[in-house]
Amino acid sequence: MFLKRISLLRENIERFDQYPFNIPSITSLEHLDLTSDVTFLVGENGSGKSTLLEAVAEKCGFNLAGGSRNNTYDVHAVHSDLGEQIRLSWMPKITNGFFMRAESFYQFATHLDDLKADGARGAYDAYGGRSLHEQSHGESFLSLFLNRFNGRAIYLLDEPEAALSPQRQLTFLRILHDLTTNEGCQFIIATHSPILLGYPDALILNFDAGQIEEIKYEMTDHYQITRYFLENRERFLKDLLEE
Ligand SMILES: Nc1ncnc2c1ncn2[C@@H]1O[C@H](COP(=O)(O)OP(=O)(O)OP(=O)(O)O)[C@@H](O)[C@H]1O
C-alpha cells in the first residue's frame, strides 16, 4: 500500500456552496484513511465518487481523461478543482499508476492509435499488442488490466465493470487478487457492481448519507437490492411495475 490518507484542505476553501465543494460527501470531508490495498467507493449516482477519484488522479499527475503521467492528450475534462484542495499522504511515495474511466476509454484508445500512427513502435505493447479499438469493449478493458498494470503502482478505476460480463468481472477479481498479492499494487475503484464489491478484505467507503464512511459489504444497497431482487424477482417486479 502506498496512499494512506486523503485530506481535504478545508482552510483553503473559500466557498462550500459551489461545485465540487457543495457535494454533501465533499462538504463534510475531513480526511479518509485507506486501510486496505483495495478501496471501493460506493454510493448513489451523483454522490461524488468520480469527483473524488478525479481529484486523486489530478494530484497523482495522471491524465484526467484516462492514462498515466506519460499520457498527454487533450480532451474535455482536463482539470479538477478538488484536486487542488486535497493532500495525499504516501508511505512510500510512488508516481506509477493509471486512471481509467469507462466513459472516456474510447478517447484513450484513440490516443494510442494516434501514437502508433505517429510512429511510436511500442504503442500497443502494454495493451495486448493491437489497437484497443480492434478489441471489444470488455476485451479492451481486460487487455489494459492484464498487460498494462503491474507492480508498485496505484490504479484509480471509475466503473471498470461497465463493459464486463459477470464472468469477466470474476476474471477481473482474479487479476485484482494477483496484482495486489504478487505485485503490491493499490487500487481505488468507484463501482456499482455487487460482484466487484465482494472482493475479500476490501475497504468500502459509502458516499450516501451526506458523508463518506466505511460500510460492510452486506450493508450496501448494491448487495441488498441485488439479493432481494434475485430472491424475490416476481414479487419485486409486481410491486415495482404495478405501483
Ligand atoms: N463539472 C460539473 N459542474 C457542476 N456539477 C457537476 C460537475 N460534474 C459533476 N457535477 C455534479 O456533482 C455531483 C457528483 O458527481 P459525480 O460524477 O462525482 O457522481 P458519482 O457519484 O461519480 O455518480 P455516478 O455513480 O453516476 O458516476 C453530481 O450531482 C453532478 O451533477
TrEMBL record:
It holds the Pfam family AAA_21. Transmembrane segments: none annotated. One of its GO terms (molecular function) is ATP hydrolysis activity. Residues 8-234 form the ABC transporter domain. The keyword Nucleotide-binding applies. It is found in: Cell membrane. This is AAA family ATPase. It comes from Planococcus salinus.
